Amino acid sequence: MTIQEFDLPARWRSLLTEHFSEAIHNVQMSWPEKQSLDVSYRVIESFDPDFAIDIVEHPELNTQAANTAIGLLLTEMGAGNIVAFIRIVDLPPDCSRTVRQLRSEDLGLMISVEAIATRISGVRPRTYEGTFECVACGHRTRISQPNEQELIEPVECFEIDGGCSRRKGQTRFVQRIEESILIDSQFIELQEPPENLRGGIQPERILCIAEHDLAGKLNPGDRVTANGMLFVRSQRKSGKETPIFDIFLRIHSIEREEIPLEEIQISDEEEHEIKELARREDVYDILKQSIAPSIFGMNPQKESLMLQLFGGVSGKNADGTRVRGDIHILLMGDPGVAKSQLLSYMSEISPRGRFTSGMSASAAGLTAAAVQDSTADGRWTLEAGALALADLGLAAIDEFDKMNENDRSSMHEAMEQQRISISKAGINATLSTRCAILAAANPKSGRFQSVSEVPFTNQINLKPPLLSRFDIIWLLTDEPQQDKDKMIANHIIETRMSATSELLIDQGGATDPSRKSNQAGVTKHAGLHIVGRDLMRKYIAYAKRNVHPKLTEDARKSIVDFYVETRRKGGEQTDSVAITARSIEGLYRLAQASARIRLSDEATIEDSNRAIRLVSLWRYDLMGEDYDETTINSGKKGNARNRERTIVEIVRRLTLETGENALLIDVLNESEQLQISRDVAEDIIERLNRDGTLFRPSYETLSTAR
Ligand code: ADP
Ligand code: MG
After folding, report:
1. How many A from CA of 58 to the centre of ligand 2?
2. Looking at residue 633, what is its pLDDT?
3. So what's the pLDDT on residue 696?
4. How far apart are CA 244 and CA 234, in angstroms?
5. Residue identifier of the C-alpha nearest atom 23 of ligand 1
C-alpha cells in the first residue's frame, strides 16, 4: 500500500511526537552545535512498517516532509528560528550496496554504502533558495535551487506574483545574496574499502555531496557508512549536455564505525578457535611461521613482524598527549633479500593493510595532497595518502628512502603523533595516521658496505631523526654463506615447483591454492603449522579490540635495567643511533604486543625478555656491541684481536638468535667461513674461556659472559 504524498508530513509528525519529543527538545537546547536529529530506521519500522518501506522507496519526499515536520514542532515549542534536519540512520541490510554495485536502478531509492572518504573539497556556501530582483521594476522572485552545478534564474518577472511581466530578454535579474538562503556544501569522494576487494582490482569511487551540517564533518581516511540517494547529471562536453550521465550520491546521513576494525566480523566459533590457538604453548612459533612461509629463514625478523601485527596499546595521558602503540619497523638491506616480498605479505595478513611505494604514482603520496579536481567542479580537494587510508592498520612502504620531499617533511608527525595537520588551498584538516609502518629501504650505493667501515647512517638516504622513529631497524645483507645459500635456493625452487599455474587457475583447470590457505584455520604445511590469512586477520583484530596488556613489576624492571646497562656501555660510543629514551617506549610496546598474542592482560618477564632479545639483536646486527674507536681507525682484518672479537660476536649472535647457548659446532662452522680454521678457533675459544670472556656451560655449548 503506497502512502499518499500529502499524508507524509502528518505521519512524520506523529512519529516525532510519539518517540522523539525529548530528543527534539535536546536539539533545541544544543543548537547550533547540533543541527540534526538522528532517527533510527528500526524505530520507524516498529512504529509503522508501511511507512518504513515508503521511506526507502521515496526518500526525497520523506526527508522533505520530515524536515517540515520538525520545523513545525520546533516553531510550536517557540523555537521558530531554528532550522533542524532529520537524519535517518541504521538502514536495513537490503539498502546496503557496495560502491561497485551502484547502478541506475538504484536511482531515487534510499541506499547505504560502507566506504572510506578519500577526498574532501573545501566547504563552500551554495544557494539553496535564491532571491532575484528584476532590474526594471525591482520586484523580487524566489526560486529554490536543487542543482549544485547551475543557478536557475527566473524566466519572467511574473505578473501574478506582482511583477512587471517582462521576460528574460527584456530585463535582467540580479541575485540578492542577503535575502537568499545559503547552505554549506562539500564534495566528498568515497571509495570502497580495500578489504572487500579481491586482489589487484582497483577500488571504485563515487562522488558525493554533503550539505548543511554534514559538510565539513569528514576527513580523508575516515571510515563511514553513508546513507543517501543517488542522482545523475549529464556529462558536459564543450558546454553541451551529452546523453551520458555521471552518478552522484547525495548524502542524507553519516554513521561512523563504533568498534575499531568494525569490518572484521568474528563468529563465536572463530572466537573459540582464536582462544584455543592463543592457549597453545607453541603459539609464537606458529604465528611466526605463518608470516610469509615461502620466505626462508629470517626468524628474528619474522618474530618482530609478528609483534608488529598485534602492536602495543595506544594511550592518552592526563596532559592530553598521546602515547603511540603501533610498532614501526624498517627493513634496510641489499637488493634481492626478499624485503618487498615480506612487505607485500604483511600488507595482506594485517587488518587494513596497505602496500605502497615511496615513489607512489598517486599525487597524494604517503601522507596527503591538495589537488584541483575536475569532477568536483574544479574545486581544490584534499586527498588522503596511504597512511591515512591505513588508519588502525598497517602501511607497508617499499622504497621508503625514495619518498618525495612533501612526504619526508610530514613523516615525523605522521609516525610519532600519528596525525597529519594540513592547511592547503583553504582546506584545514587533521588526518589520523594511527597505523604501524613497515618500511623497506635500499642502500645509496646499491649494496651495504660493512657497517664497521662506514656507519650505516651514511649509507642510506634517511636522516637520523626519522630513523629514530623506528622501534626496530633490521640490516639485511646479502653475504654469500654456503649452507644458507643452498637452503634458500632449495626452498625457492621447492616453492616454485609446488606453485599452481596462474593461467590454469584462470581457465578453471586448477584451484587457486591461496584461496584455500586463505580460508583454512590452522593447517600443516611441510611439517610446520601455519595459520590461514583469514584467521590471522581475525586473531589480530580480536586481540587489538579486547586485550590491553599492562607490564608486571618484573617486566618493567627488566626493561629499565636493560636500558641503563646499554646506555652505560654505549657511553663512549660514537655511533649515531645511541639508545635513547624513545627506545624504552619501543620495548614497552613490543612487550605488550607479545602479551597480546597470548590474549593476556599482563605482560610478564617472558614478554619483556622477548622484546629485549629482539632489540639487542637488531642493535647488534646494525652497530656491533662494543664497537669502539680502535676498530674504526685500524680497520685491520685477520689479526689476533679481530679473530677474538669475531668469535665472541658469533657466539653472541647465535645466543641472541636462538635464545639459548650457542652450539660449539655452529661457532666453529661460522668461524671457518670467515677464514678462521677450526684449530685456531678452538685455541681462541680456550683462551677466551680462561680469561672469562666466554662461558662454556657444557663441552658442546658456549655463551657470552653477559
Ligand atoms: P628486495 O625487495 O629485497 O630487493 P625481493 O622481495 O624483490 O627483494 O626478492 C627477490 C626474490 O628473491 C624474490 O623472488 C624472493 O622470493 C627471493 N628471495 C630472496 N630471499 C629469499 C629467502 N630468504 N627465501 C625465499 N625467497 C627469497
Ligand atoms: Mg624490493
Report:
1. 53
2. 31
3. 82
4. 6
5. 296
Cα 523 to middle of ligand 1, angstroms = 24
CA distance linking residue 55 with residue 253, whole number of Å: 14
Copy the grid coordinates of residue 548: 590491553
For residue 48, what pLDDT is reported? 92
390, 353 contact by CB (below 8 A): yes
Mean pLDDT by 10 residues, the chain (706 residues): 76 92 89 88 92 92 89 87 88 89 85 91 87 89 79 86 84 89 89 70 85 88 91 78 84 86 87 93 92 87 96 86 91 91 92 86 76 70 87 92 86 89 79 93 82 73 85 83 71 73 72 64 72 91 94 93 79 52 88 96 94 88 52 37 80 85 88 80 81 80 75
Ligand index nearest the alpha carbon of residue 476: 1
Distance (Å, whole) CA 429 – CA 432: 10
Does residue 419 contact residue 375 with C-beta atoms inside 8 Å? no
C-alpha cell recorded at residue 330: 624498517
Secondary-structure percent of the chain, ordered helix, strand, coil, rounded to 5: 40, 25, 35
**16, amino acid identity:** L
Span from the CA of 336 to the centroid of ligand 2 (angstroms) = 7
Q: Grid coordinates standing for 298?
A: 629470517
C-alpha cell at 135: 532590474
> What residues pack around ion ligand 2 (CB closer than 5 A)?
340
Q: How far is the CA of 334 from the centre of ligand 2 (A)?
A: 9
How many CB atoms are located within 10 Å of the residue 255 CB?
Answer: 16
CB neighbour burial string for 384-410, b if at least 16 within 10 angstroms, e if fewer: bbbbbbbbbbbbbbbbbbebeebbbeb
Confidence at residue 636, expressed as pLDDT on a 0 to 100 scale: 34
Specify whether the CB–CB gap between 681 and 646 falls below 8 A.
no
For residue 308, the 8-state DSSP code is: H
Beta-bridge mates of residue 38: 87
Q: Determine contact, residues 617/662, Cβ cutoff 8 Å.
A: no
Any residues with CB less than 8 A from the CB of 320 and at least 6 apart, and which?
Answer: none
Ligand 1: which residue has its CA nearest to atom 14?
Answer: 338
pLDDT score of 1: 53
Which-ligand-closest: CA of 334? 1
Phi then psi dihedrals of residue 457, to 5 deg: -65, -25
Q: Is the peptide bond before 465 cis (omega within 30 degrees of 0)?
A: no
Instruction: Give the residues surrounding ligand 1 with Cβ less than 6 Å away.
Output: 295-297, 333, 335-341, 488, 491-492
Q: Whose CA is nearest to atom 6 of ligand 1?
A: 338
C-alpha to C-alpha distance for 667 and 702, rounded to whole angstroms: 9
10 Å CB burial of residue 571 (0-12, 13-18, 19+) is: exposed
Q: How far apart are CA 359 and CA 400, in angstroms?
A: 8
pLDDT digits (tens, 9 = 90+) for 441-453: 998 887 777 766 6
